[in-house]
Every structure is written in C-alpha cells, then in structure tokens.
Amino acid sequence: MALTRFRTKTAPRHKKTNINESFYLWELLKSYFVTYESIKTWEDYAEDTQLNDFLKRYSGSLEDNITRLETAMDKQGLGEPDRQTIGVTYTLGANKLNDRYIANETLTLAQKNVDLLTRAIGAPAINDDIHSLLVKFVPGAMEYRDEMAKYVEMNGWLESSSYVPQVTVGTKRKPAKGPSSKSDVHGDSSASLVDRVKQDTLTIGTIAGLIGVSSMHIVGMLWMWLGWAKVSTLQVSGAIFIDESDVNTTLGLMISAIAHLIVGSAGGVLLSHYMKYVGKDFFWLKGLALSGLLLLGGMGLIVHMLNIYPKAEKDALTQFLHMINYFIYGIVVSYILARYAVYKKRT
User: Is residue 6 assigned to a domain?
Assistant: First the structure.
C-alpha cells in the first residue's frame, strides 16, 4: 500500500528566503521611512538655502527608492518579517530645530541608510533582481551621505570624527583607476580649487562682481550702439580718474576698464560679506539694494561732486538706462553668490 506524501514539492526560492531576505529589506525600508518623514518635517525649519535644497533633493530620492523597492518586493512575494521591530520616536522642541541639529541628524540617518544598504546587498539569500536594484541605489546613497558630511564639516558642526564616512559600499564594479592616474590627480585638484573658491568670501565675491560688471557693460554698450545713452558707465568710471577728453583714447579706455572692474568687484565683495552673515534668502532683493547703494554713491554723489559729463548727467533717458544697468549688475552678482557661494557659519 502506497502512502501519499504531502508537501514534498520544493518551494520557490523567494518563498524559502522570505524571512531572511525580507528582514534585511524591511529594515532598510524602515530606515528610509524614518529618514523621509524626518526630512519632510525639517524642511519647514531649515533656514540655510543650501541645506533646504539638499533636504528636498534627498527626500525626493528616498521617496523614489521606497516606491521602487516596495514594487520589487511585492513582485517577489516578500512580506514583512515575523520579528517585530521597534519604531523610532522623534521628540524635540521646534525652538531647538536649528540648522546644526538638522544637518547632524540628517548625516546620521544618511550614514545609517548606507550601512543598511551594505548589509542588504551582502546578504547571501537576497534575490538577484532586488540585489541589482539595491546596487543601483548605492551611488545616490553615498553621494547624499558624503555631501551632507562635507556640509557639516565645512560649517564646523562636526561633533565627532565618527561622523566622517570612511566605509564605502562594496558592489561588483570595475576597479577604479589608481592614484597615479594623471586625470584623477588633475580632476581632484580642480575640484579642490573650485571648492576653495566657493568657500572663500572675498574670492567668490570678487568673481561675482567681475561677472556682474561685465554683464552691466555689455548692456551699456547696447544702449550706446542704439544711440539711447549719451555716455556709458565705463566712461563715467574712467572720468573719475582722468580728463573726459582722454577717456576714449587707448590708455584712457584701459584706465576706464580697470576702474570699472575694481568698482564692480568691490561691490561683489561687499555683498558677499553681507550675505554671509544675513543669509541667501531673497538674494535678488539684496542685489537690488547693492545696486541702489552704488547708483546713489557713484552716479549720484561722486559724478555730481566731480561734475563728470554734466550734459549726460542731466539727460533723463541716459540716467534711466544707467539705473537698468545697475539693477542688472546687482541681480547677476546676488544670483551668483546665492547659487555658488558656500559660507561657513560661525557658531
């Protein structure tokens, strides 16, 4: 008599590994959820524009990763592990949610996500499709972690050396070029120089001022070419130091250009130091304020006192176009500083 044997069929691989695999993945998902919810709360309290921009980008990346990972797990029939996990509570008064706290907490959560991602990728029972998906998460996770670590260290908020990420996620990728590679050396050197320029208040202010005054000059030349303006701001700058009859000579134009660039760079440095202490919010308004200051001090006070180009001084259209020039200068300078300058806050 033959006895029928029940449940002898080998279960699919994803069923065999349900508990082990889903444990690693749900731990990673849980960390993603906690990080996402915390960041969405902190977005309302972050004052620094750079930090707020980072939080928005990071939360968007987390939301995308959560959706993709949940979809992949659902396709594999992976459910929540039997083991009950302990939720993370978040308690802190709103008055203590400053940029320093937010940045350090974000860095801690970003590092935790990288660690959990490392463990999930290294799990031997992990599904191949999900493993490939997790590997795709690696570059973004490391990039956000390193960017926040750099931001915290740059602002002098690094509370412990353990916050500095040292471990990278191991995946099957082509080995990177050795340190002897000339392209790597030049690339690192260039990146380091750019970072130092962004962090130096005077240097980034000078560059912003030079670009701003160049933009201002181009527009001013357009007014001259159209015949709308009787004199350019470049000529006015030169007439401060030399006689009006010498302004249009070769040497006179050189002096005018140097004077124009000096005034423009000085305005950029002034605005850079101001934005360092008051922040980048409403940068365009700060740029217009700088425009008004230079317009009144330069075209108003100095030109009137030195009696420079008296006919042009009284021409309404010329003065109106000069105002537009200065407004363009202020907007360009303030935008460059708001977009590229990295100010180290004092604590």
Answer: no
Domain count, the chain: 2
Check whether residue 200 and residue 307 sit in a common domain. yes
> Which DSSP string do the residues of 33-74 spell out, in sequence order?
HHHHHHHHHHTTT--SHHHHHHHHHHHHHHHHHHHHHHHHHH
Asked if 133 and 65 touch (Cβ cutoff 8 Å), the reply is: no
**Tokens for 65?**
């990763």
Answer whether residue 160 is part of any domain.
yes
Residue 112 is part of which domain span? 13-172
Is residue 209 within 8 Å of 157, Cβ to Cβ? no
The Cα–Cα gap between 13 and 21 comes to 11
Two tokens at 12?
């699919």
Q: Which of 274, 277, 278 has the alpha carbon at shortest distance from 333? A: 274
Q: pLDDT for 19-60, tens place per residue? A: 566 777 888 888 888 999 989 988 888 888 888 888 989 988
b/e sequence 245-263, b meaning 16+ C-beta within 10 Å? eebeeeebeebbeebbbeb
Compute CA 38 distance to the chain's CA centroid, rounded to the nearest angstrom.
20
Q: Is residue 188 part of a domain?
A: no
Torsion of Cα atoms, 236 then 238 then 243 then 248, to 10°: -90
Quick: pLDDT tens for 210-220. Answer: 999 999 999 99
| Ramachandran sector of residue 63 (left: φ over 0; alpha: ψ -120 to 50; beta: rest) | alpha
